[in-house]
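Reopening this one. Same input as before:
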Amino acid sequence: MLYALSVISKSVKSFVTELYLETKGFSDIIDITSQVRDAVRNSEITNGFALVFIPGATAAVTTMEYESGLIEDMKRALEVIAPINQSYKHDLRWGDGNGFSHVRASFLGPSLTIPIVNKELILGVWQQIVVIDMDNKPRRRRVVIGVYGE
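Same output, byte for byte:
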């Protein structure tokens, strides 16, 4: 069955916070679910959505089951999509050797939106929010978490 609920609100609130991560690069996968949940709990928003965004062109935000087997599977899949040892036009232009990381990040994307109902993120039982840093060196990454609603 499909249900539709339409609510018009004039009291949309917002709460924005930042998270900083020290990453290892090379498809380092970091679970940030608890930090996003904390942002929701610290906001005054009961129902709405959380927007998680990572500035930069060599990292991404997505969801997955954060367990060791799938982490390795994801790294292997990213290697198939954009192998490290291939030649990339980006590398010829800039000489930084991270063309593969730009391609990988472009496929996954820099943001994720998660619904919030009764101050809880609507995630599946085995679904965590992760940052994947695909650059070719360790980085200090900034993650912006916005919580919007009422």
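So the earlier flakiness isn't reproducible anymore. For the record, Residues 13-149 form a domain with the Jelly Rolls fold (CATH 2.60.120.460).
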